[in-house]
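stage 2 :: seqdesign
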C-alpha cells in the first residue's frame, strides 16, 4: 500500500513538473521570440533603402492635362 502511494506521488510530482516546465518553457520562448522579432524582421529601414519596390508614377488625370507643363515656357 505504501509503495502504491509513493508511486502515485512520484508520478504526480513528475507530471506536474513536466507540465510546469513545458508551460514556462513555452512562455519564455514566446517572450524571447517576441523580443527578437523587432531586431530581425521588423528592423527600421536604413536611410536610402526602401523595403518597397520603386514607386510607380501617378497616372495622368483622365483629361490628360499635365499641370507641370502649364504656363509659358
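stage 2 :: out
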Amino acid at each position: 500500500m505504501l509503495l502504491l502511494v509513493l508511486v502515485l506521488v512520484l508520478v504526480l510530482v513528475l507530471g506536474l513538473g513536466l507540465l510546469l516546465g513545458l508551460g514556462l518553457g513555452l512562455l519564455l520562448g514566446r517572450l524571447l521570440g517576441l523580443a527578437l522579432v523587432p531586431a530581425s524582421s521588423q528592423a527600421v529601414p536604413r536611410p536610402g533603402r526602401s523595403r518597397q519596390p520603386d514607386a510607380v508614377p501617378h497616372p495622368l488625370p483622365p483629361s490628360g492635362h499635365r499641370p507641370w507643363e502649364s504656363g509659358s515656357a
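stage 3 :: structure notes
- Helices lie at 2-40.
- The chain is about 55% helix and 0% strand.
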